[in-house]
Amino acid sequence: MDIHILDVGCGNMAILFNPDGTRVVIDCNITSDNSNDVLGYVRRILGYGTSIDVFINSHRDADHMRGITDLHAQNPIKAIWDTDVPGTTTDSPEYLAYMTLKRMLPGRTIEARNFYTFGDAKYRCMSAKWSDYTDPNEQSAVIKVEYRTVGCSVMFAADTNYRPWKEKILTNYNGNDLQSALLVGAHHGSVTFFDDPADTKNYYVDHIKKINPAMTLVSVGPNQHGLPDAKAIDLYTKYSTGSSAGNKVFTTEDKHNMKITLKDDGGWNLAVDQ
To answer: Which domain holds residue 21?
Structure first.
């Protein structure tokens, strides 16, 4: 099973080729600056005009759905799934374009503690909409993609901070369910993934200890927010066990497009600069 992590700047986008032949895209950030490169890469690996079976939007922020109409024009999207949580900028052009397309297509509200299968691939939605939360980022869809075995997997943390992990995910899932070979780090390397304001002495790390990734991949590019945060990178490095080559943290800013291969025997491979 192949999973491509695209270099889309300070945003997120992944293309997943499932073992049953279906194609899933998680998030999208196609801008005027990167459009030629991103759409060109999609054409190369997917083929012009090849349909996308499902587009999963982790949450309705612009950097996770920007350019979806351009993607749809090149590779028609059959269905859109999201958490049904309004974003923070509901009057933005990106939001309006996304919602217009979403209303035109079949869809599904993805819910926490549910899973969806595509052949031998299982998509576990570990966190999504919570009735007692108001922050859209805290209600991002956290999706773990497993191929055949629990350990042959990739965890997509979206833009979550420490809170849904501490209060929801770790209370609903055990260590075996959480353990993932690779972690796509939260919110472009923001330290909020680890920073619990209630604890002024320690960073929150219970979640990454349970995930226990070999490597953490951070989707980030030039930005005005100081991302990735140096402390977050330190913590990702400390709690990632390392690949066979000793690598622990890669960013799309440095390694560009990356291709993960989840193998039939439970192993995995990561290729960079694709």
So the answer is: 2-271
Of 71, 5, 64, the closest CA to residue 219 belongs to: 5
How many residues are given for the chain? Answer: 274
238 C-beta neighbours (distance < 10 Å), count = 12
Task: Say how many domains are in the chain.
Answer: 1
pLDDT in tens, 129-173: 999 999 999 999 999 999 998 889 999 999 999 999 999 999 999
Closest CA to 101 of 73, 65, 66, 69: 69
User: d(Cα 170, Cα 164) in Å, to the nearest integer?
Assistant: 8
CATH number at residue 257: 3.60.15.10
Q: How far is CA 127 from the centre of its chain?
A: 12
Phi then psi for residue 233, to 5 deg, are -65, -40
Q: What is the pTM of this model?
A: 0.98
Residue 170, burial from CB neighbour count under 10 angstroms (0-12, 13-18, 19+)? middle
